[in-house]
Amino acid sequence: MKTLPLRLMPGQDLRATLAGVLAGHGASAGFVVQGIGSLLGARLRLAGAPDATELEGDIEILTLAGSLSPDGPHLHMALADANGRVMGGHVLAGCTIRTTAEILIALLPDHRFAREPDAASGFDELVVHSHDC
């Protein structure tokens, strides 16, 4: 495992930036171990909801975690608004960095992650491949 600390800058899209991390480092599997920071707004898909929930205003990232594969990231985060109300869910495009996002990534050089259809869940789910197989 190789660790990769990142700082995202104002205006960057959180999900889009993390989607490009693997290719930029020649890796095909990774995890977001933790992330904190602030957003100008956020788009989350809440548990069981078919559509995005949009949050506006200054938002703090309390936690960020997930997996990174060449097929795209699978990220969840907990957020707090300016009044301290907390909400969490699946990270969608449209989460724009306000001041910073400080993120720790673990790259897994002996593995390749893929997202493939899963009949039980109805979603594309993580499939782990070892490079030695």
Automatic annotation (TrEMBL):
The keyword DNA-binding applies. InterPro entries: PPC_dom. Keywords: DNA-binding. PROSITE patterns: PPC. One of its GO terms (molecular function) is DNA binding. The keyword Transmembrane helix does not apply. CDD domains: DUF296. Residues 1-129 form the PPC domain. This is DNA-binding protein. It comes from Massilia aquatica. The lineage of its organism: Bacteria, Pseudomonadati, Pseudomonadota, Betaproteobacteria, Burkholderiales.
